[in-house]
Amino acid sequence: MTIRSQPTIRTATPADQQTISELLAEAFLHGDLADWLIPHLDTRARIYPHYFALHVEHALTHGYIDMTADGSSVVSETIIRAQGLNAPSISVATNRGTSRRDPR
């Protein structure tokens, strides 16, 4: 029987913004829509960290981000307020891939 250690989870702070932005950029770099959004891989790799920094800043201000102590995984939840609706948006990114759930 193999016993796996549980990762230490902590709430992210503004000091973690760059680490989280880089993790999200890496995780989404080859995502389903990546080629359609920004066709050239080199351009996408240059733009994504700045793009995700905006989302991280928003999540840190209006939601929360939990992350592993080693920075290899993050989970964020923010409330999207549009047209009078409060819809949670949950994103998960790890150094192994991504998942996103937008319940509507």
Question: What layout of secondary structure does this protein have?
Answer:
Blueprint: E1 9-11, H1 17-28, H2 34-37, H3 41-62, E2 63-68, E3 73-82, E4 85-94, E5 97-101
Antiparallel strand pairs: 1-2, 2-3, 3-4, 4-5
Helix pairs in contact: 1-3
Task: Give your account of this protein's structure.
This protein is α+β, with helices and mostly antiparallel strands. The protein has one domain (14-101). 37% of the residues lie in helices and 33% in strands. The protein has helices at residues 17-28, 34-37, 41-62; strands at residues 9-11, 63-68, 73-82, 85-94, 97-101. A 5-stranded antiparallel β-sheet has the order 1-2-3-4-5, with helices on one face. A hairpin with a 4-residue loop joins strand 2 and strand 3. It starts with 8 loop residues before the first strand and ends with a strand. Residues 97-104 have low confidence and may be disordered.
Q: What's the end-to-end separation, in Å?
A: 41 Å
Structural class: alpha+beta
Radius of gyration: 15 Å
Poorly predicted tracts of residues: 97-104
| Percent in strands | 25-35%
The oligomerization state is single chain
Strand arrangement, largest sheet?
A: 1-2-3-4-5
Contiguous helical run count: 3
| Overall 3D shape | globular
Look at the structure and give the mean pLDDT: 78
Our count of domains comes out at 1
The count of β-strands is 5
One letter per element, helices H and strands E, the order comes to EHHHEEEE
Largest sheet geometry: 5 strands, antiparallel
What helical percentage do the residues reach?
25-40%
